[in-house]
Fold this protein.
Amino acid sequence: MKKIMLLLTLVLTSCEYFKEEVDLVVFNANIYTVDEGFSKAEAFAVKNGKFIAIGTSEEVRKIYTSERLFDADGRTITPGLIDAHCHFYGLGLNQQVVDLTGTTSYQEVLDLVQQFQAENPREFIRGRGWDQNDWEVKEFPTKKELDALFPDIPVALERVDGHAYLVNQAALDMAGIKWNTVIDGGEIVKGPYGITGVLVDNPMRLIDSVTPPPSLETKIQALKDAESICFSYGLTTVNDAGIDRETISLIDSLQQAGELSIRVYAMVSNTKEDVDHFIYKGPIKTDRLNVRSVKVYGDGALGSRGAALKKPYSDKWGHYGAMITPVNEIEDLARRLAISEYQMNTHAIGDSANAVVLRAYQKVLKDRPDRRWKVEHAQVIDSADFDYFKEGIIPSIQPTHATSDMYWAEERVGPHRVKGAYAFKKLLEKAGTIALGTDFPVEQVSPFLTFYAAVSRKDLDDYPEGGFQMQDALTREEALRGMTIWAAYSNFEEHEKGSIELGKWADFTIYSDDLMAVPLPQIPTIDAEQTFIAGEVAE
């Protein structure tokens, strides 16, 4: 009997001995690989930060062993989530200003600004997140109350969409903005008693030019704060839609030093100096950073009536919105980028701006296949212009914009044009792929709200009954692909991430519930329990 036991021990030991040692084995999981066939698995093995085996728990554990054996206990795992359009650095900076998100009145805004200044004294007060469409009085505020509260301290409060400021007189004086100041591509809003304090789009730059810049310590903390928030939601890659050369360099240095782990697809801000620098330098690609695109602002936002429309706004006759970047400049930049290795990603909200951008793309990309240029937002499209997306142009959309804007979108554009707005399914059918993001901090960071809005077309109050323009809802599979493999494809990274497949980075997210199977109303309550980058826990 002792001989038999000894023999069994030797056999088991030898079997274990001949297993390949790897860095991590995950088993007993409900894995959506998001490969071409949308197949499922139970386990995978990770070595040197990449997936080297995927299959059943029995198959993987028979061949591989590790000091890190992770029993998922049946929990759901997907590829690490990608936010295809956000403002990562901006999210971090927002942690250090007055948070006005969700305010229901101008008085609440004023109360929060006063409270912030009392607790965090500033020589220049910044805030972000107000939206007059959420107030009982759905009109732009004026600076009168800010002037009374802060006669000597400049104040600049950014609208939720990032396309308007409310500033006080002290800020206007610092920036030299007067009644006769003229800035193309936006509006200095005026009333019967003078400048109201609301600046839409390009005039905001005058305020930016006199705002004290953040210190290096502040910038580093902002990036780390943003990373921590993103990891808590299961995000492993973020597409930062418009950052300057200095910030890109800082991200790279922090990543190289091991102080920043999240992967960043950086869109270069459209300034002459930065564009010149990066086109001359060529794309930058590391394991964590990818710089090969330029972010361009075509027009403004629909909520602040800055989106450029072909016909006047339905609720402001004679007003068409405005192009932030003139048409000729968009066309010139498109020609220049077309002969470089850089992708052009252009913000276009209104149907006029979308038409301008799509035509410019078509002109310069005729003989240049697989350039994957994106239209960021692609929010209101004329029926005559959808077919442009058949030509390799990728719509990069944010599903929660539909459920945030649906309360007033038809007021802005009317019942006919709204049918071509937030048309996710139609865009997918034309383009064959879409990339999904949030546009945070314009919207909340949560990818679960993105997924829910894309599929249900409802807000968190279960409104509207039946969903908003449900013909353009996505399936759950389409939504998950848009947040993983299609987003990776839009970044030229589909061979290294976006699905759980052999040889790809072991970026994955573990959930509290199965987002592909739970009842729709439960999706927003799902938590990302753990986030992994290259097989390591991201914290």
Q: What stands out?
A: The domain at 97-208 is CATH 3.10.310.70 (Diaminopimelate Epimerase; Chain A, domain 1). The chain has 18 helices and 27 strands. Residues 1-15 have pLDDT under 50 and may be disordered. The two ends are 51 Å apart (CA to CA).
